[in-house]
Amino acid sequence: MNIQELRCFEAVSRNKKFILAAEELHISQPALSNTIKRLEKKVGYKLLERSTKELSLTELGQVFNNHVCHLLSQFDNTVDDLEQIKISGGGKLKIGIIESSRYLMPQIIKQFKQVYPEIGIQIMEMSPVAIEEALNNYDIHLGITSDIKSDHKLTYSSIKQEQLSLAIPMNHKFANLTSINMIDLQEETLIHSLSGFGIRKIIVDACNTAGFKPHILYETESLELASNLVEIGIGVSVMPDSYLKSNANKRIKIVSFKDNIYKRSVYIAYHSQRYLQSSFHDLILIIKKNYS
Length: 292
Hints:
Blueprint: H1 3-15, H2 18-25, H3 29-43, E1 48-49, E2 56-57, H4 59-88, E3 92-97, H5 105-115, E4 120-125, H6 128-136, E5 142-145, E6 154-169, E7 179-180, E8 189-192, H7 198-210, E9 215-219, H8 223-231, E10 237-240, H9 241-246, E11 252-257, E12 263-271, H10 278-291
Parallel strand pairs: 3-4, 3-5, 7-11, 8-9
Antiparallel strand pairs: 1-2, 5-12, 6-10, 6-11, 6-12
Helix pairs in contact: 1-2, 1-3, 1-4, 2-3, 5-10
């Protein structure tokens, strides 16, 4: 089988009608139908159920389609990588990062460019969930994330344990304290990340262990927005020290938790089945060095 046959099958399975897939592929409907029949003959089993007006995948067809989508994505991204190298002489590495990682990126890029001046870097701030999706879709080469997903296709490597602290307004009742216990947040309004974020789970679990349910009234994906809300007295927020210290704000006070017991891990993540050039692996070494 060849790439064109796989593209024909993917278009048919997605559009669920030969006529729509044929129009998308700019070929005749009979030609497309013959291609699918030829493909079914090659693989040795029926891929499509044609008994209804709208086509559907057989059970084996669904399994085949999952692999086809992955193969086509890998092929297209390989072609794109090669085209980038042809145009620029070095290509481009795309990185998805969580917001707290932004303060280290200028130094990481500077060090990388000293070794690979011809390779471009594209950086996108993303949620951990979006990073996982982008890696699986081959939209990025590498992610810096705070969550590990149970996905055998992705490889994770821990690079740092980030301390978590409490951000409060300057006039807050905790302002004269250097440290607090989690139970002290029982009456506080929390500004926190959305469900699914690792840091939120850490704090919710810690509050439950302390014997109370956290009062999370405001939710956001952005540490910057959470910081701004804390600043104007809307509530308090638990954030990574790395972010708080790199975005020093005189109108927000940082209070530690006693014994510094609350931490989150930061990971490098990449797709284990994607071809990655040597410069990618050197970039990982530079990132690890800056996080150590």
